[in-house]
Amino acid sequence: MSYILEHTTLGFCWWDLPAAIILILVIVVVAWKHHDMKQQERELEDQISALYANDTVPLDKAKR
After folding, report:
1. Is-contact 42 35, C-beta < 8 A?
2. How far apart (Å, rounded) are the C-alpha atoms in residues 55 and 64?
3. Over residues 40-55, mean pLDDT
4. Cβ–Cβ < 8 Å for 28, 34
5. Which pTM does this prediction carry?
6. Alpha helix ranges (H) inside the chain
């Protein structure tokens, strides 16, 4: 079996497995950070909306 892997053009180098594992880990970490950042963005938007909820001017007062 090792002969087939070492002497074929589609075979893998022994560095391919650690590189693939690291690539998968990087993709998972980036997706996790992106999810956390989006969740934090939604929370901050909710806080800003709650902060400015009572600062709106009704339209009938604005026309006068």
Report:
1. no
2. 18
3. 90
4. no
5. 0.59
6. 2-6, 16-51, 59-63
